[in-house]
Every structure is written in C-alpha cells, then in structure tokens.
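pinned: reference chain
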Amino acid sequence: MNKTIAILIPCYNEEQTIAKVVEDFHKQLPQADIYVYDNNSSDGTDKVARHSGAIVRYEERQGKGNVIRRMLSDIEADCYILVDGDDTYPAEYASIMSNNILEDGYDMVIGDRLSATYFQENKRPFHDLGNRLVRYAINKIFHSDIKDIMTGYRAISKRMVRTTSLFSEGFEIETEMTINALDNQLKICQIPVEYRNRPDGSISKLNTFSDGIRILLTIFKLFRDYKPLRFFSYISIVLVILSILFLLPIFIDYFNSGLVPRFPTLIVCSFVILFAILLWLCGLILEVLLNRHRQIRFLISNQIK
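pinned: its structure tokens
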C-alpha cells in the first residue's frame, strides 16, 4: 500500500513567497499533497497558493497554533511535513525527512536550524537569545539534547498525530510539540537544515517580546503539567528553606533565653512548611495519575500502525 505524505503550510500574508515554497516542495515530493491554510491573510496569499497547485483551506482563528491544530485534525496522511510559507527552509530536505518517518520509523524529524546557518542568517539578535534560552530550559527540564526546539520545519508520523494533544494558539506550538514528543518518549531524529533569511519585503509575524513571553509561559505550564512532582518539589524546597532561615533566629533565642520573642513569625513559618508539604503531596499524586495516563497512551500508540 502506498504511503501518503501531506505537506502542511500555515500562512498569514505570505503572498510574496508562497508560490516558490509550493513549487519547490512539489519538485522534491511530487507525490505529496500540499496544503496551504490561510489564516485571515489580507493579501493574495490564497490565490497565489491555489494558482501554484496547492490545496487551499482556511482557518479563521488567528494564530499559528490554531492553524496547525486544524491541519492535523482535518488531514489524513502517513507522514506530515510542517513548513513555514516564508521560504526560509529549503525543500531539498523534505525527501530525507519523509523517509525518516516512513522507512526508518521515526515519529518526529526536527529540521535543526541552530546547528546550521541560523545564527549567521537571522538578523534579530533577541531571536538568537530566545532560541538558546528555550533550548537550554527544555533540555534541562526533560534531560534531553534537542538542538532546535522552535524550528518551523519538521516531519511527524501518523502515530504522533493520533496520540498527541496540542492546545497552543500561537508560535509556542512548536515548543509544545517538542515537549509532547519528549514526554511520550517518541522516536526523534534531528537533521541540520540550512536556514535562509526572509527575502526583502517579507515581514516576520513573530513578535520578539510578546511571543517570547508566551513561549516561556508555555514552558512553565508544560513543566507543571508533564513533571508535576519535580515542579512542586522545587517550590516546596524553596518554601522550606525560606522558612528555616526565618526560624533559625527564633530557635537560637529560645535555646539561649528559653523565650520565644517572635510568635507571629513562628506561626507563619510553621504554616508555610505545612503548605510546602501539601504542595509536595499534590505533586506526588499528580505524578501517579500522569504515569497511569502515560501507560494508557502507550497502549493506544502501539495499536496505531
């Protein structure tokens, strides 16, 4: 049975570049279906994409995450290749990425910009800092070695689509997809890919600060959701240490004089320690429930061919 490949291109005002992206990927994977989902573009992105041979559909909810979730929900394929419509990712890697999914059994193939030409091509220094910060945080939290967390160029398997729940609405969707793959212990492959800066006149939709804050908040929330015992343990440890620092002078005074001069501090610190214990117990309970949920997902994923 022939295996199907779907190339998914979320677009917002990419009239200048979308035709080249569609044509390049069609040359590399002529057997693939190319889908362009227009996200309320005010230019002629949809018309240019349709004229270039893409299947054009629409998503009215603004945000890249909304578009990708809609794509993965609508389209059936054995291999999905996600790529931006701004012509920053060369199509030459698409056949390698699809083979890694269809022939080698990987669940996610990451197009790693950061190990190739990204830092030379990208002209926005805060983007460089943001990529390094997010990469460091994710790898520390999940004990992984992912080179490029937020790349917009990746291939994913049908099994990953069927067993992964995504909730992000904006550019943090790539971070969430990576964390999902790590948490589900899916088979991940990374290949360095060249990164091209946007052509003149093409404007990035990523806001360095607002989207950066949303990505960091997403990491915080996903750390809480996927590693609850570690998350609440860290908070508990900090609260206990602070309480002990305030309690030490009280105990020293008590042992020296037999008096407790600061009863309010003693009471507050005692309640803080009790609260820290409760937080740790919450993390423990959530960790048990999460592990049970992981076992169910693992059984379901093994049933999906």
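why pinned: The chain is about 55% helix and 10% strand. The two ends are 13 Å apart (CA to CA).
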